[in-house]
């Protein structure tokens, strides 16, 4: 090894020693820093820990942060959260505002450490209740709406509060759950509205306003014999205001000419005139009703007629009356139809129909006897000896009839009497005014004359007006005698006592979607399900259809 090489090694070792010595000296003057864990957040508490605040009001929460030694810490960043923002909202400073009644947990977070407070939001308490109007005057049966307004201590209206109503004298006035007061009898009553223990009142006076006049309308109606007319009585006070809920009685000065029901329906009895009086609280109103003869049918107007005079027996010529009927049919092969001698007075023969139960049916039918939506009148005589109680659909439009058609007669037999219904619907079955039954039965073995006026109020709506006359020609049933289903029990449009007379007088009609079907007419036996095979008969005679007036005998 050369001298120069050895010198270089010595210098290198000297340089390393100097560097180590220098570092040691620096280490003595500047010791290494160590993290002080006592300055970190160890706990976070909120106060108040449990708070209650009304809706719309606010409460300030205070967050206290401490280190592991329990020393308070300041200047730390806090994040605030609400578990239910619909109940309470909190801002970045811990101010909590009630939004709606309920509960919410408020949380503050700093350095991963959290603290909570339980908050309940309540309604602002009701301090008072105001009822308007403060006083009211009504008559018996009259109603009046009261309004209750709950308010806070500052007089601000509060919404969404439960209000209960009570009357101090229910014999004078009652009050509904919505504050509607109804007068009962003369006197004074205090109506109280209560919300959250606070109450307000209204003083209600019920007094009877006397009837001063009674007006009857129409004042001078004219009605044909056998028809009815509905009268209306309107009581009024001295100022001409209509009075409701008053008792009205009706009388006729000549019941031999026309009678009047308790509801003001006048039924003609004989030609002449009578004064109908309506009385309320001793005050009378009158109408003079004139009963006229039914005008004789004008010449012409008959569109179809069959008296079954062609032949007796079961031949096609006999049943179709020499081709007057378009067709006839028999289902089951029992030959239910036959023409026999012995019709009602004035008619020699009759079409006889036998009852053989649900497996046999028959009908004779006339097609398109009028143009669609044209008014027409039907008359035929009928006698029943059958005792099957099931409603046989025996006189109708297209046969077998669809339930959506007009069925003139659905017959129910009994041991000594029978009855029938008129059924009409198409657009929709409407209970209880799609089926109409008379108020009294008909006697087995006797001839009756049945007449129907089918009146179109528009192209697809009809009113059906029936008349039934007994063997002497006296009117036995009319519009006023045909009642709704479940008469007196089932309610439609505010009444449970509808008759065909009141139904038409009120302007109502029945929807029949296909008026073409009403241009067909059939008579027979539909073989109704549930009917009994009695082997007995019913009879038709003297059929006439016309477009101008009631056919008569």
- How much is the average pLDDT? 88
Largest sheet: 9 strands, antiparallel
Poorly predicted sequence stretches spanning 5 or more consecutive residues: 1-12, 14-37
Oligomer: single chain
> What helical percentage do the residues reach?
under 10%
Query: What is the count of DSSP helices, taking H or I runs of 4+ residues?
Result: 3
Measured on Cα atoms, how large is the radius of gyration?
A: 47 Å
| Intertermini distance | 163 Å
User: Could you say which structural class the secondary elements and strand pairing correspond to?
Assistant: mainly beta
Shape, per Cα inertia axes: elongated
The fraction of residues in strands falls at 35-45%
Total beta strands: 46
Fold blueprint:
Blueprint: H1 3-29, E1 43-47, E2 50-54, E3 58-60, E4 62-66, E5 72-73, E6 79-82, E7 88-90, E8 95-98, E9 102-110, E10 113-122, E11 128-132, E12 135-138, E13 143-145, E14 147-151, E15 164-167, E16 173-175, E17 180-183, E18 187-195, E19 198-206, E20 213-217, E21 222-224, E22 228-230, E23 232-236, E24 249-252, E25 258-260, E26 265-268, E27 272-280, E28 283-292, E29 302-306, H2 316-319, E30 327-331, E31 337-341, E32 349-354, E33 361-366, E34 376-384, E35 392-396, E36 406-413, E37 417-424, E38 435-438, E39 442-443, E40 448-458, E41 461-469, E42 475-477, E43 482-483, H3 500-505, E44 510-511, E45 521-525, E46 537-546
Parallel strand pairs: 2-10, 12-19, 21-28
Antiparallel strand pairs: 1-4, 3-8, 4-5, 6-9, 7-8, 9-10, 11-14, 13-17, 15-18, 16-17, 18-19, 20-23, 22-26, 24-27, 25-26, 27-28, 29-46, 30-33, 31-32, 32-46, 33-45, 34-40, 34-46, 35-36, 35-45, 36-37, 37-38, 37-39, 38-43, 40-41, 41-42, 41-44
């Amino acid at each position: 090894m050369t001298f120069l090489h050895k010198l270089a090694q010595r210098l290198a070792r000297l340089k390393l020693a100097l560097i180590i010595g220098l570092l040691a000296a620096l280490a003595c003057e500047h010791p290494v820093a160590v993290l002080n864990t006592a300055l970190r957040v160890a706990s976070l508490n909120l106060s108040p820990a449990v708070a209650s605040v009304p809706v719309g009001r606010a409460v300030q929460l205070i967050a206290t942060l401490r280190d592991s030694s329990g020393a308070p810490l300041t200047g730390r960043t806090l994040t605030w959260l609400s578990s239910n923002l619909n109940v309470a909202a909190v801002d970045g400073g811990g101010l909590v505002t009630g939004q709606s009644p309920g509960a919410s947990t408020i949380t503050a977070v700093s350095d991963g450490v959290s603290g909570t407070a339980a908050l309940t939001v309540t309604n602002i308490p009701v301090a008072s209740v105001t009822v308007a109007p403060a006083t009211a005057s009504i008559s018996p049966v009259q109603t009046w709406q009261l309004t209750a307004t709950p308010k806070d201590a500052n007089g601000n209206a509060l919404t969404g509060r439960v209000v209960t109503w009570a009357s101090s004298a229910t014999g004078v006035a009652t009050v509904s759950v919505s504050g509607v007061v109804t007068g009962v009898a003369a006197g004074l009553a205090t109506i109280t509205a209560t919300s959250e223990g606070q109450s307000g009142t209204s003083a209600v006076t019920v007094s009877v306003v006397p009837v001063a006049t009674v007006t009857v309308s129409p004042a001078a109606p004219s009605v044909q014999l056998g028809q009815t007319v509905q009268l209306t009585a309107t009581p009024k006070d001295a100022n001409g205001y209509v009075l409701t809920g008053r008792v009205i009685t009706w009388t006729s000065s000549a019941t031999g000419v026309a009678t009047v029901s308790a509801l003001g329906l006048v039924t003609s009895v004989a030609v002449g005139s009578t004064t109908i009086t309506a009385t309320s609280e001793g005050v009378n109103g009158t109408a003079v009703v004139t009963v006229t003869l039914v005008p004789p049918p004008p010449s012409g107007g008959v569109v179809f007629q069959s008296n079954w005079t062609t032949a007796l027996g079961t031949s096609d010529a006999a049943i179709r009356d020499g081709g007057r009927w378009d067709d006839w049919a028999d289902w089951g092969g029992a030959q239910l139809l036959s023409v026999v001698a012995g019709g009602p007075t004035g008619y020699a023969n009759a079409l006889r129909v036998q009852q053989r139960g649900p497996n046999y049916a028959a009908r004779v039918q006339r097609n398109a006897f009028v143009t669609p939506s044209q008014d027409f009148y039907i008359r035929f005589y009928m006698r029943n000896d059958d005792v099957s109680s099931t409603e046989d659909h025996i006189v109708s439009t297209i046969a077998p009839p669809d339930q959506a058609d007009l069925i003139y007669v659905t017959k129910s037999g009994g041991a000594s009497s029978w009855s029938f219904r008129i059924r009409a619907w198409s657009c929709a079955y409407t209970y209880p005014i799609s089926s109409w039954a008379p108020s009294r039965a008909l006697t087995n073995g006797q001839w009756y004359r049945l007449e129907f006026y089918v009146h179109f109020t528009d192209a697809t709506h009809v009113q059906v007006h029936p008349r039934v006359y007994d063997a002497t020609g006296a009117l036995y049933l009319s519009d006023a005698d045909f009642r709704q289903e479940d008469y007196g029990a089932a309610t439609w449009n505010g009444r449970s006592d509808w008759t065909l007379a009141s139904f038409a007088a009120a302007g109502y009609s029945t929807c029949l979607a296909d008026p073409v079907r009403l241009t067909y007419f059939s008579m027979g036996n539909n073989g109704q399900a549930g009917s009994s095979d009695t082997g007995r008969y019913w009879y038709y005679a003297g059929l006439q259809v016309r477009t101008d007036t009631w056919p008569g005998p």
